[in-house]
Amino acid sequence: MSQITRAYAKDLGKIEKASIVIGNLLKTLTKLKKLRLTFEPSIDEKGEFSRQIRPELAETEDYRGVFLLAFDYANEVSRKSGKRIVVIIDEFPNLIEFKRYSKLEAIIELFRGVVESRENVEHVVSGSRVHFMLNILGKGESPLFGHFVIMEVGPLSKEYALELFMKSAKCSLDEAECTWKIDGGHPYYLIMLAESHKPGESYEETYKRILTSPTGALNLYVNYLLKEDLGSSTKEARLRKILQAIAQGKNTSSQIARHVKLKLSSVPYYLQELERYDLIYKKRRKIPNNR
Question: What tens digit of pLDDT does each residue of 145-198 get?
Fold first, then answer.
């Protein structure tokens, strides 16, 4: 951002720069009006009592104004430079959490206003909570519906997955091939597997440990997804039990129902939920062609 600011300032003329200096001066004077002094008792090095004066700015935080100002800055830079500006917001769901602040309760509607009033600016949002992103960008009732082109980023191809793992784990191609069979091309899983591997431990053992241990990286990730994304504690507990059942080899609906003590007719619903949260996937069997 500092590079953009410097480039922006470089293109400004003398009059514009003078206007900015005067504008900043006026802002400073405005702040001085809000200045308040507090007297703080203290003891100096000689042990004598004294009073210190501490200046403070008595101003209320305008979260809504700050939020809008951040995006308006991109418009201003684009306007002055004559260039298109791209604003990338990673982990977009975290931005929505700012709704707990005053005047940001309707932050989604506020962001829609930002998108609709943009000038020569493009907004790119991304997030690892896929179903959350689909809900907030792709559902008709969402204020952001129709404002973004949705592109789902899939796993890495085998070539790039092996390259990533070998760089992360400093391992051989054969070892990377082994992890491809375990993890496929999910970059987060591959990196966690590489970082968590211990000497003398096979990658299959590492994977099982970080998935089943309470402090394992993948176990914590699963817990994060369930805690963040599920609204009902009862539902969360059932999904967790079903995941544990699948991890123990209970792969049919009847096996899961018996293990979790759930009605057989209810199992498909929970499996679909786990699929929607990208925690499991269904491996379909090929139907033989008898013709």
Answer: 999 999 988 899 999 999 999 999 999 999 999 999 988 898 989 999 999 999
Domain range for 122 is 63-138
Rounded CA gap, 182 and 197, in Å? 14
pLDDT in tens, 37-90: 555 555 555 555 455 555 555 555 688 888 898 899 999 999 989 999 999 999
In a domain, 147, yes or no: no
CB-based contacts of 167-173 (< 8 A; 24+ apart in sequence): 168/194, 168/195, 169/193, 169/194, 169/197
Q: Which residue's entry shows tokens 């907004």?
A: 123
User: CA Rg, the chain, in Å?
Assistant: 28
CB-CB contact of 148 with 136 (8 Å): no
- The answer to pTM > 0.85 is no
Domains in the chain: how many in total? 3
Out of 57, 74, 93, a domain closes at 57
For residue 41, the surrounding DSSP H or E stretch is strand 35-43
Measured N-to-C along each axis, helices 107-116 and 63-81 cross at an angle, to the nearest 10 degrees, of 20
Do 40 and 113 fall into the same domain?
no
119 is a domain residue: yes
